[in-house]
Amino acid sequence: MLLRQVDLYLHLDEYPPALATPFGFRTRYLCNFVERRLQALKFQAQGFNKICVQGRHQPLESCPIVPENAVLPTVFFDASRYESLGAGEHHEFLIGMLVEGLERCARHHRIPLAELVAAVDEFRRGGYRNEWVHQSKLLRPLGLRASLSCRLDAEKFELILKLDRKGTTVFERQILETKPDEIIFAHRFKEVVVEGEVIVVKDKFGKQAFSLERSSLE
After folding, report:
1. Cα gap 190→204, rounded to integer Å
2. How far apart are CA 78 and CA 93, in angstroms?
3. Strand 74-76 relative to strand 208-213, pairing
4. Closest among 5, 6, 154, 8 to 75, alpha carbons compared
5. What residue spans of 13-170 are helical by DSSP H?
6. Which residues contact 151 (CB under 8 A, 6 or more apart)?
7. Going residue by residue through the chain (218 aa), what tens digit of pLDDT does each one get?
8. Helix, strand or coil, per DSSP, at residue 18
9. Sheet containing 130-139: which strands, arranged edge to edge?
10. CA-to-CA distance for 44 and 61, rounded, in angstroms?
């Protein structure tokens, strides 16, 4: 199976939703960064396509493959330390849990551990930022270059539309903000197109997500 996904979350029977749910959202900016590096590897795993690192009171020594083709390494979750951290102080705490889980997984299953840890190091060197360009294309009828850029952090996801004409930015605005989870935002945008005199951002279903009249740029 092609290994595609990396998750970090808390055991839902051991921690209340008021703690586990925000924790799950908070980890996606890190896991998404690692996943995008992982997908480029096209690594074939044996019997699973996702690694689900689970925080628990008492981690298990085993690392089973569970339903939905997931391998389940467990790590200790230090709740008191986690709750003592302020805004912007969770990066290394989450990295520590994730890397420990990946290392535990590698003791039981063949995974691209070195490449995954290298992705985490890249994330750290980049200042814990997860930003990427989803699409950049020339809108020839209008003489504009359109870019859809994504920013994902521990608190939110943002989609930014930028329009350039001959190297000069004529429009740049956040056009979407959601909670930081691909289940919420991934289907909300796909491409920029031109429909007559209107610039349209369409979602994965071909529906209009945002529009802008060309005349507003003049």
Report:
1. 5
2. 9
3. unpaired
4. 8
5. 17-41, 79-84, 91-106, 113-125
6. 129, 130, 131, 157, 158, 160
7. 999 999 999 999 999 999 999 999 999 999 999 999 999 999 999 999 999 999 999 999 999 999 999 999 999 999 999 999 998 899 999 999 999 999 999 999 999 999 999 999 999 999 999 999 999 999 998 999 999 999 999 999 999 999 999 989 999 999 999 999 999 999 999 999 999 999 999 999 999 999 999 999 87
8. helix
9. 130-139, 144-152, 157-165, 168-178
10. 24
Q: Please give the single-letter amino acid code of residue 55.
A: G
- Residues 144/163, Cβ–Cβ less than 8 Å: yes
* Helical packing angle, 113-125 and 91-106, nearest 10°: 170
C-alpha to C-alpha distance for 191 and 156, rounded to whole angstroms: 21
Residue 197 contacts residue 211 (beta carbons within 8 Å): no
CA distance 105 to 113: 9
Q: Which two tokens stand for residue 136?
A: 């950049």
Contact 75, 97 (CB under 8 A): yes
